[in-house]
Amino acid sequence: MNKLRLSLFVLSISIASSFAHGAVQSDTKQAVVPKVPKQAVVPSDTKQATDIKSKIKGLYFGGGIGVSNIYQARETSSIALDSMDDSFSTSIKTSFNLLAGYQFNRIFALEFVFTDFGNLNFDDELQATSLPAKYSPFGFSTQANIGYTFKNGWRPFALLGITVMSLNPGEPSIPGSNDLNKTPTTLLTGVGIEYQPAALSGVIFRVTGSRDWYTVDYNYPNVDGGAKMFSDLAMIQNISIGAGYKF
Length: 247
What we know:
alpha+beta, two-stranded antiparallel ribbon
């Protein structure tokens, strides 16, 4: 009888031990938390670069105000001006411009510009010559804008193009003299820099300096009743500041 009781006691302990071991394993399995893959973090500077890049390519419009003058270099054939210096220029006047363009990538853009250079006057010394002393030029330009747009919004650039110019010369001082090149097609060159702030998406601020090169062709009457011709190299200089918006 005692052996039977001892056997039942040992069996009950074994069953309890097995049950306890199984419960521990079940709790352990429930406590294991599966690993969650980490989400990729996008750096803030990459996001800013993407925002600026979205405004690199596109159509833009703008305008500006500046100052301009005409600089004219005397050639050896300009014998009508023998009493004058080798070069002369007009007074500096206010100019303004309107611009439309399309930027294709970080490097290249194509622009169309209208510029009114103001009423430009040569000094009184020209009143004794056959040259008109007053001009009111304006022009329509087609120009390539070649530079580089950096991720911080700055873009230095150079300009190269042509301008269909109307000089609108005043009346010459000597009757019978004539400006033979009133509407020259000029060679345009220039440099500039623009800035597109990230806080003002699409807004562009711009500073530009440009020159339109052309030849001045004149004839004027001789004392013997004939005509004399001469040709000078001239340029219209313009410096402007402006703003625009890129869509």
